[in-house]
Amino acid sequence: MKFQITCTRCGCTQATAPDTHHEWDEIHCEECGEFLDTCGHFEDRHAAGYHVQALNMSRSLILQMARENGWQGDSAMAGRRSA
To answer: How far is Cα 16 from Cα 25, in angstroms, rounded to an integer?
Structure first.
């Protein structure tokens, strides 16, 4: 099975994996044979749900950091405008 992954070693964009296509099957560069990823991880990263999950995790982290730093949000901005 062919995958479109850029090799970090030689820059080739063609990679192959065994036709059995189990989650633990390794994806290797066709040119130099470098290990690039596993089939399961590659599919998880390119599924639509992965991007939404990453976005939600980033948003949660931003909100947590804002709370820890004492940022007041819109109320603090309103106070600055009136002053």
So the answer is: 10
